[in-house]
Amino acid sequence: MVQLQNPIVFGFLYLSYAFYVYNRKSVSQCLPSLINTEGLSTIVAGFIVSAQNAAYAISKLASGTVSDHVSPRNLLGSGLLCCAATTLLFSVNSEWDNGYVLLWFVNGCAQGVGWPACAKILQTTFPSRFGTLWSILSTSVNVAGIVSPILSSLLIPLIGWRWNLRLVGALSLVVGFTCLTFVFENQPEVLKKNSNIDVKKAKLVDLLSRSILLVALFYFVVNCIKTALTDWCQMFLISEYKLSPDLASRFVSSFEFGGFVGSLAAGYLTDYYIQYEVTIRRYT
Q1: Phi, psi (degrees; rounded to nearest 5) at 93
Q2: Which pLDDT belongs to residue 2?
Q3: What is the pLDDT, as a whole number, of residue 237?
Q4: Distance between CA 237 and CA 227 in Å, rounded?
Q5: Helical segments of 179-187, H only
Q6: What is the reported pLDDT for 23?
Q7: Which stretches within the chain are classed as H helix?
Q8: What are residue 185's phi and psi, to 5 degrees?
Q9: Would you say 59 and 113 are in contact if contact means Cβ atoms under 8 Å apart?
Q10: In this predicted structure, what is the pLDDT of residue 188?
Q11: Contact of 134 with 267, CB cutoff 8 Å
Q12: Does residue 149 contact residue 28 with C-beta atoms inside 8 Å?
């Protein structure tokens, strides 16, 4: 029975986080329509995106600690439900620009719990294949990044940006409720066994170590480039180079496809070199 549960758990982890990303990028993909049809200024559009990213960073930092003390299943499902709710509310807001910023800030707060919860479940359920499965799970970000711009470019001209967001929110509600109700229902012993593990509190000196700071710096630079490309490039290509939304969305999708290939390669190489190092140490 366990052999059947693990692939199901991983499959729903993959699906749920893909919908986290679909939610996260949904408004960015609607910004050209918001600016053209609703008269939204580019300044407010910048505040909307920045508010979400700021809240996401703070929430992700805090959620890493919370996931050690709260059921990761509940974090994963409730976070996605909150993302869905803010996306649906965003689609009905019409007059208050600050409301857009506030709603997307709350969305960013909810977004932050998704990845720590996924990591915790992955670690407790697949400890021996953590590196490879971590890289496969991280491709859910790229898959959502490939598919969502193309879907949005096709749906927005047909049904409008509001109904596009409502569709994203409704689908996310379904996936969120599924996570809470079914996904980890047959895994209580896994979570219970790992809930008794003593988790040491990170010391400030550890957080400020050279290795952690270097990793954080590299990750910061990479995400600055990625955020600029995925959140703003489509709008820039449409406004400055007069490309069609469909063609501009393909550029974003091609960027995410490169990330998909890179994530798979990084996970495989990580497990390979760790195993290689263990083997070398064993015979030396």
Answers
A1: -70, 135
A2: 39
A3: 80
A4: 15
A5: none
A6: 93
A7: 2-38, 42-66, 72-92, 97-111, 114-125, 130-178, 188-195, 204-207, 210-227, 233-241, 245-282
A8: -60, -35
A9: yes
A10: 43
A11: yes
A12: no
Give the list of residues 6+ apart from residue 50 with CB closer than 8 angstroms, or none.
none
Q: What tens digit of pLDDT does each residue of 145-190 get?
A: 888 888 988 899 999 999 999 999 999 999 999 888 776 544 444 4
pLDDT at 79: 93
Show the low-confidence residues of the chain (pLDDT under 70): 1-5, 128, 131, 183-208, 278, 283-284
Look up residue 187 and give its two tokens: 């895994």
For residue 162, give both structure tokens.
Answer: 């509001």
pLDDT of residue 220: 77
- Residue with tokens 């996605």, as numbered in its chain: 80
Per-residue pLDDT at 71 = 83
Q: Burial code of 105-127, b = ≥16 C-beta within 10 A, e = fewer?
A: bbbbbbbbbbbbbbbbbbebbbe
The two three-digit tokens of residue 107, written as one number:
């969305």
Residue 31 main-chain phi, psi, to 5 deg = -60, -40
- Residue 149, CA distances (Å) to 10, 56, 111, 135, 187 in order: 25, 21, 19, 22, 35
Q: Which residues contact 129 (CB under 8 A, 6 or more apart)?
A: 271
Nearest CA to 160 out of 261, 33, 17 is that of: 33
* 82 C-beta neighbours (distance < 10 Å), count: 19
Contact 231, 28 (CB under 8 A): yes
The pair phi, psi for residue 172, each rounded to 5°, is -65, -35
Which amino acid appears at position 279 of this protein? T
For residues 247 and 179, what is the distance between their CA atoms, to the nearest angstrom? Answer: 35
